[in-house]
Amino acid sequence: MLGGLGAPLTAVLLFAGLLLDALLGEPRRLHPLVGFGRLATRVENLLNRGRWRRLAGALAWTLAVLPPVCLVLWLQRLLPAWAGWLLDATLMWFSLGLFSLRAHTAPIADALLAGRLSDARALTARIVSRDTDTSDEAALAKAACESQLENGSDAVIGALFWFAVAGGAGALLFRLANTLDAMWGYRNARFGRFGSFAARADDVLGYLPARLTALAYALLGDTRRALACWRKQAPAWPSPNAGAVMSSGAGALGVALGGTARYDGVDEMRPSLGEGRAPKAADIGRAWRLVARSALLWCTLFALSALLTG
């Protein structure tokens, strides 16, 4: 049960991971994902060729993800209990991205509020793939809010959910799978077939966490509007998980997201998300607080459930 951990201990380690994330933030040196990304790039360069690219992509995903996850499972059996708990807490911290979200987006809001539009454009370009060279305040605030709402599932609730299910190994599995989707899950000539397995794996692993995230957003914001936007707008979004999360979050915040965005010099019209006014600089902080409160909500509910049933 719960990756070999009892429910009360799992609840303690969930909060320990959140505390470590708050105190330490994202690793600044020797980030494990940097090494994993290099490994994934080498595997992709080796296998992304020939006629059987879908099969090669599945093999590449397996070779990149399963060995570190299996290593964690082996260590959990080998280590004494206290060391295993420390490993789990560390993996929970490594898998979370709650406070790194704030670290990357708060400077955008600060720059916009100070009228430093060029700085805000450069900062936003670090977290999104769209063009920001000519973006105004509303477009930059929209990009930052969308990134935070989507990552509320991908980098926060998803990691918490899979830790609750399978301990540190579960959180690691989710984080690595999500990283490969970000690297390989593009619908283009290079990754269209090779990255299809990584994209589907991320969709499957993120299905329940995305809906828990969307539900939390609705409960903690404008509930009626969030649920209505989720129901009406999510099916039109290309990603089954991101659509649910961002439509609910935008509705909860009462802002209009989605719509036109420029990629590689070409304007793309995306489905609408949410309802209300255009986002402002202050909404970037509101979006992060919604993500943070959602994480605390599910951790608290899990802890209460553990106390009542444990």
UniProtKB/TrEMBL annotation:
Q: Which UniProt keywords apply?
A: Cell membrane, Cobalamin biosynthesis, Membrane, Transmembrane, Transmembrane helix
Give TM regions: 55-75, 82-101, 156-177, 290-308
Q: Name one GO biological process term.
A: cobalamin biosynthetic process
Q: How does it sit in the membrane?
A: Multi-pass membrane protein
GO cellular component entries: plasma membrane
Name any one GO molecular function. threonine-phosphate decarboxylase activity
| Associated pathway | Cofactor biosynthesis; adenosylcobalamin biosynthesis
* Compartments, as annotated in UniProt: Cell membrane
The main place the protein resides is: membrane
Family label? Belongs to the CobD/CbiB family.
Tell me, in a sentence or two, what this protein's role is. Answer: Converts cobyric acid to cobinamide by the addition of aminopropanol on the F carboxylic group.
The name on file for this protein is Cobalamin biosynthesis protein CobD
